[in-house]
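call fold(seq) -> C-alpha cells
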Amino acid sequence: MSGPFTGGCQCGAVRYRFRALGRASICHCRMCQKAMGNYFAPLVEVEGFEWTRGERGLFASSNLSGRGFCRSCGTPLTLETDEIVEVAIGSLDDPAIVPIEYHANIADRHDVVMHLDKVPEADPEVGAENDAWNARIVSHQHPDRDTDVWPPRPGHG
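ret:
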C-alpha cells in the first residue's frame, strides 16, 4: 500500500512520514517486549521513511539494531537496522491501515497472548467506574494528524 503515511509520538514532539507499507508482524522477542513495555511489539516495515518534526532518541538495543523513541514522552517509534526501518504500528496516525501478516520470534511468546480473546470484559460496575474516570480526562495527546504548530497556540487547537 502506498501513502504518504504519517505518525508520531504521544506528545507531538517527534513526527514522521513514509511512502509505502511493507510486511507487518507481531514480534514476541524479549527485546521487543522490553522496548514496548508489553507482551509483544506490532511493527511494520516501511519505505521512504523520514522524520518531519523533532529529533528522536535512539537506543542501540543490539549490535544490529536501534530503537527510536521520543525523548520527551517516551513513545516507542521505530526499530532501525542498516537494511530496514520498522515503525511501531500504534504510533501511526491510522494504525488500522496495517494488516498484520505473521507472528515473529515465537520462542519468547507468552501464552496469554494466544488467549486474549478469552479474557472477559469488565463487569458493568467496573465498566461504569472506568467510564466515569475517562470522562474526567483532558487529553494532552497530540492529535492523529500532522499539525503546523505543536503544542497549539491558544484558540488554534
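The chain has one domain: 2-135.
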